[in-house]
Design goal:
This protein is 23% helix and 29% strand. By secondary structure, it is an alpha+beta fold. The strands form 4 sheets. The chain has a 5-stranded mixed β-sheet, with no helix packed on it. A 3-stranded antiparallel β-sheet has the order 6-7-10, with no helix packed on it. A two-stranded antiparallel ribbon has the order 1-2. α2 crosses α3. The chain starts with 5 loop residues before the first helix and ends in a 9-residue tail after the last strand. The relative contact order is 0.12.
């Protein structure tokens, strides 16, 4: 493997193996190779063969690219700022996930990019009414199998409430009032839309 530092790769394999409380023999048995091969990798005397990288990646729980770099390169520690919250949606299977900062996320073989929230418009208008201690949210939007609101999320300064919606049901729901924050609604065709909720009220803000 050209341009691969086997010593860095070996140190990473060693640290990940120890993290998982595995001996060299344990790892070798799972991969159906000898423990001498694992020892050779960890001492930087050689790198895993390309044919073994996928299995090694699955066992250690690390992307193949990170193994070849020999460095996990962790993100800066998150300080709990919900303003950094990102939403991701897979165009293949429709799976949805979130992250509190920069993160490499993939699904169905695709690398997912964070959804970019747009201010609501006439076709994606989010209406919010205060009912007792709740926000009653309605979205006048088609809910067919091909075109629908996939989820609605309510984000305040310290928490997230998430509701998954499905075709052929009404796009309406209730959230407890969290004293301000942002509502997000994801249309499977047109992306992510947002609506700001002012503190102490649920009137529409343009």
């Amino acid at each position: 493997m050209d341009h691969v530092d086997c010593h860095k790769v070996g140190r990473l394999i060693h640290s990940l193996r120890i993290e998982k409380n595995m001996t060299q023999r344990n790892l070798a048995d799972l991969m159906h190779i000898s423990d001498k091969t694992i020892s050779k990798w960890e001492r930087g005397l050689g790198c895993p063969d390309v044919s073994l990288l996928s299995e090694l990646s699955n066992i250690l729980g690390v992307n193949i690219e990170k193994i070849l770099l020999g460095d996990l390169d962790p993100n800066e520690q998150d300080k709990g700022n919900m303003k950094k919250l990102n939403f991701y949606a897979c165009p293949g299977c429709g799976n949805v996930t979130t992250s509190m900062g920069a993160m490499g996320i993939s699904c169905c073989g695709r690398i997912l990019e964070p959804l970019l929230a747009q201010p609501e418009n006439d076709e994606h208008e989010i209406t919010v009414h205060a009912i007792e201690d709740d926000h009653f949210v309605t979205i006048q939007h088609e809910m067919s199998r091909d075109h629908y609101i996939s989820f609605v999320a309510y984000v305040s300064y310290d928490r997230l409430m998430f509701v998954k919606l499905y075709p052929e049901q009404a796009a309406e729901l209730r959230f407890p009032n969290m004293q301000g924050g942002t509502l997000y609604a994801y249309c499977n065709r047109h992306g992510l839309w947002k609506h700001e909720i002012i503190k102490h009220g649920a009137r529409r803000v343009s």
